[in-house]
Amino acid sequence: MINNEEFLDEIGDNHFSSNAKNPLREDAFDITDEEKIEKIKKDVENILQTLGMDLTDDSIKGTPNRVAKMFVKEIFGGLNPAKQPKASTFDNNYKYGEMLVEKNITVYSTCEHHLLPIIGRAHVAYISSGRVIGLSKMNRIVEYYAKRPQVQERLTMQIVQELQKALGTEDVACVIDAKHLCVNSRGIKDIESSTVTSEFGGKFKDPQTKREFLDYIKLDTQF
After folding, report:
1. pTM for this structure?
2. C-alpha angle 21-25-30 in degrees, rounded to nearest 5
């Protein structure tokens, strides 16, 4: 009989997600970023002290504050809806009707099971139904949803859903190929493996359109 702690460990070690949305509490933003930094700083101090580190050493005494600021301002900054990029779109006045592909968007995210990095590339495409979006906005949408504790499947879906909403079309696709340091540096310690996830909407579900997109990004994986 597996106990609850073993069950939760199994979920994390096998990278299962229990929620298609990031599991945020309703009071997540009742305190300011500065208050969060102070609370996290004390927690990091406690972790380091418990591990036996000497926090009077010049090299490490600033670590709790650095980590707290990094969590709130940088690697988990995408949790804050106030930081969501404005996905400005424009009329497709030049009547471009083919696929637009933005390849090799850098992904830096964090595995929500072990709080270790996920590093890879996202490939995003859409077919205009009358609106187009600035290229840099596609990068910013990827970055926004990546900067939070994540699972790769959810991240892939969130990128597609955000672009579908912004562009007013289902014809959006995303493929992410990334390394998970929770697999590469601990556990099985497989430094070569990477994880590929995909989400295809609208016309991208058609095998020919899907194949065209995968040919553009030079990905041979079968979906």
Report:
1. 0.89
2. 130
Distance CA 159, CA 199 (A): 9
Amino acid of residue 171:
D
Q: Which residues contact 21 (CB under 8 A, 6 or more apart)?
A: 154
Annotated binding site for Zn(2+): 111, 114, 182
The answer on pLDDT for 1 being more than 60 is: no
Please choose, from the candidates 29, 18, 127, the residue with its C-alpha nearest in 3D space to the C-alpha of residue 84.
29
Q: What separation in angstroms does the CA of 140 have from each of 31, 69, 77, 181?
A: 25, 21, 13, 23
Cα 185 to Cα 14, 26, 42, 66, 146, distances in angstroms: 15, 34, 27, 23, 20
- CA-wise closest residue to 184 among 100, 108, 118, 99: 118
Residue-wise pLDDT tens digits, 101-130:
999 999 999 999 999 999 999 999 999 999
Binding-site positions read 111, 114, 182
Q: Catalytic residue positions? A: 111-114, 152, 180, 182
Q: Which residue has the tokens 């940088």?
A: 74
Q: Packing angle between helix 152-167 and helix 135-146, nearest 10 degrees?
A: 140
In 3D space, the residue among 80, 57, 78, 92 whose CA is nearest the CA of residue 149 turns out to be: 78
Give CA–CA dist 130/152, Å, rounded: 30
> How many CA atoms within 13 Å lie on the side-chain side of 97?
1
